[in-house]
Amino acid sequence: MYNPISCEFFDQLNVAMQRKIPSTIIYENDDEEKETVSGLIKTMEVIDGIEFMVLDSKEKIRLDCVIKFNGKKHKEE
């Protein structure tokens, strides 16, 4: 089930995308393991009602799975 993210977090993602700020994202993958990736957010999209960020590496990350974005916590570990 998808849990919508906060407006504040969405705004942070938009700023990073528009200003092309290199970002570090720690998120929980499908196996509920933590992964860390770095890159630029190229776009954000909704697939079947679930919000994703798409990085310059073409990797798609569910927004509600992000634990930390550029050092700021967004979800309990």
List the helices and strands and how they pair.
Blueprint lengths: L6 H12 L4 E6 L5 E6 L1 E7 L2 E6 L4 E3 L3 E4 L2 E2 L4
Antiparallel strand pairs: 1-2, 1-6, 3-4, 4-5, 6-7
Task: Label this structure with key terms.
SH3 type barrels, three-stranded antiparallel sheet, 77 residues, alpha+beta, four-stranded antiparallel sheet, 44% strand, single chain, 1 helix, 7 strands
Number of domains: 1
Q: Indicate the structural class.
A: alpha+beta
Regarding CATH, which class?
Mainly Beta
CATH architecture: Roll
- Choose one word for the global shape: globular
Q: Report the CATH topology name.
A: SH3 type barrels
C-alpha Rg (nearest Å): 11 Å
Which percent range describes the beta-strand content? 35-45%
Q: How many β strands by DSSP?
A: 7
The major pleated sheet works out as: 4 strands, antiparallel
Unreliably modeled segments: none
Name the average pLDDT: 94
Percent range of helical residues: 10-25%
Q: Describe the strand arrangement of the main beta sheet, using strand numbers.
A: 2-1-6-7
Distance between the termini: 18 Å
Q: Give, in order, the helices and strands.
A: HEEEEEEE
- If helices are DSSP runs of H or I spanning 4 or more residues, what is the number of helices? 1
Question: Can you walk through the features of this model?
Answer:
It is a single chain. The chain has about 80 residues and is α+β, with helices and mostly antiparallel strands. The chain has a single domain, classed as SH3 type barrels. It contains 1 helix and 7 strands; from the N terminus they run H-E-E-E-E-E-E-E. Strand 6 (about 65-70) and strand 7 form a beta hairpin. The longest helix is centred in the N-terminal third of the chain and has 12 residues, at about 5-20. The chain is globular and about 30 Å long. The mean pLDDT is about 95.
